[in-house]
Amino acid sequence: MRSKKAIICCLAVLTGLLIPLQQAAAYFAEDSFTAYWNKESVAKVSGGAVSPVYTVKPGDTLWSISRVFGVSLSELKRLNGIHDGDLIRVGQVLLLPEVKTHRVSRGETLWSLSQRYGTSVGQLMDVNQITDPTSLKAGQELIIAGNSKGALPVTGQVQKMIFAWPLKGRITSQFGPRNGGVHHGLDIAGEMGELIRAGESGVVTTVGYLPFYGNTVIIDHGGGYKTLYGHASEYLVKKGDIVEKGQPIARVGSTGRSTGPHLHFEVRINNKAVNPVHYLES
Question: Which of 46, 43, 53, 49 shows the shortest CA–CA distance to 80?
């Protein structure tokens, strides 16, 4: 019995020694590196620039890839040993010359970064394999696409943005105190089903029913600016859509707390409601 107990104790000790070793070995498999566009996206990260790889998709050409990433066609060929007349194939992995990157700060959006670097939201989404433009996170490393400019300086003061009128009509309720509370926007009268248009370009972050507001669309314009469009009868966009200034986004309705068809329109800066009249075209 004593010998059996001794053997069991020895086995337990050996098991305890082996298990940590196996766990330690497994821990190094990924080493906590996260690729923000795909599993093969980053070959090297150094000093705010990366030498990524790109997997060829249907319809790609060397020329289109060089334009999207803003790199030299001849350099792209040289890096990959491609000669004139050589064809690229779907699924082929290409090395890319070193390109600029940007580490996302709190409050930044794809739209604000596209304005800062002189590129487009579409290009940023393409090269970083982003499908939801609202999923950007602070600390995320983005490749800056296209023939982008150097970053514009960021100041503590928000640059004033001027919006187009989302609906032409009579203002039935102004911004400010109302019925013992505060009215955070403008109410603009309209016909049921009339088109509501985006006040400025941006990314749609909310499409859905909100208490009091009813059917609502919210657009993030970057730089801390957002606009809200309430009481809609129908949505013409979905969350994640990139919209242009003046693009139809919804139709006038009377959903939520409403006494008739109209648009409730808000402008918010850093999530604080401001008087839209001061930010609309005269």
Answer: 53
Average pLDDT of adjacent 10-residue blocks, the chain of 282 residues: 54 46 27 26 36 76 76 80 82 78 82 77 75 81 63 51 94 86 90 96 92 93 89 95 93 94 93 89 84
Cα separation, 14 vs 42, in Å, equals 40
Half-sphere exposure of 2 (CA within 13 A, CB side): 0
Q: How far apart are CA 218 and CA 249, in angstroms?
A: 10
End-to-end CA distance of the chain: 96
**C-alpha dihedral over 189, 194, 199, 201, to 10 degrees?**
170
Provide the whole-model pTM: 0.52
**Distance in angstroms (rounded) separating the CA atoms of residues 82 and 141:** 29
Torsion of CA 216, 220, 226, 232, to 10 degrees: -20
Q: Which of 223, 233, 224 is nearest to 264 (CA)?
A: 233
In order of start, what are the domains of the chain with their CATH numbers? 42-143 (3.10.350.10), 171-279 (2.70.70.10)
